[in-house]
């Protein structure tokens, strides 16, 4: 998977917007101004950082060497995934969906209604 493919998938989410975090050289994808994905590079490889529950983060890290704690975000809640690793694209898409939904669930009712959620 490439940066452009994951960005396109993220931007197809209702209410998604992106901006550049120049200090991290990363593209941040947000919904209602809340971060749900960050696309960047780690050790010269394309990665995406996604929000997860601490339990899921631990499970993924234990089972997949291409999933590791995010260096720039809260390590308990954010995992970074190599896009060019062995994790299937379908599982990466699932993790994007889960991260997006986790953020949607924290939004006020009025913001969710505007998004159609």
Automatic annotation (TrEMBL):
<dbReference type="InterPro" id="IPR038056">
    <property type="entry name" value="YjbR-like_sf"/>
</dbReference>
<dbReference type="Pfam" id="PF04237">
    <property type="entry name" value="YjbR"/>
</dbReference>
<dbReference type="InterPro" id="IPR058532">
    <property type="entry name" value="YjbR/MT2646/Rv2570-like"/>
</dbReference>
<dbReference type="InterPro" id="IPR007351">
    <property type="entry name" value="YjbR"/>
</dbReference>
<protein>
    <submittedName>
        <fullName>MmcQ/YjbR family DNA-binding protein</fullName>
    </submittedName>
</protein>
<keyword id="KW-0238">DNA-binding</keyword>
<dbReference type="GO" id="GO:0003677">
    <property type="term" value="F:DNA binding"/>
</dbReference>
């Amino acid at each position: 998977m490439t940066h452009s493919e994951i960005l396109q998938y993220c931007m197809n989410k209702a209410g998604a917007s992106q901006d550049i975090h120049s200090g991290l050289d990363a593209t941040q994808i947000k919904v209602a101004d809340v971060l749900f994905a960050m696309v960047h590079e780690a050790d010269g490889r394309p990665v995406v950082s996604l929000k997860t529950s601490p339990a899921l983060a631990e499970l993924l890290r234990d089972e997949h060497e291409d999933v590791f704690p995010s260096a720039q975000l809260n390590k308990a809640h954010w995992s970074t995934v190599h896009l060019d690793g062995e994790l299937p694209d379908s599982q990466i898409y699932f993790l994007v969906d889960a991260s997006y939904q986790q953020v949607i669930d924290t939004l006020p009712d009025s913001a969710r209604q505007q998004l159609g959620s």
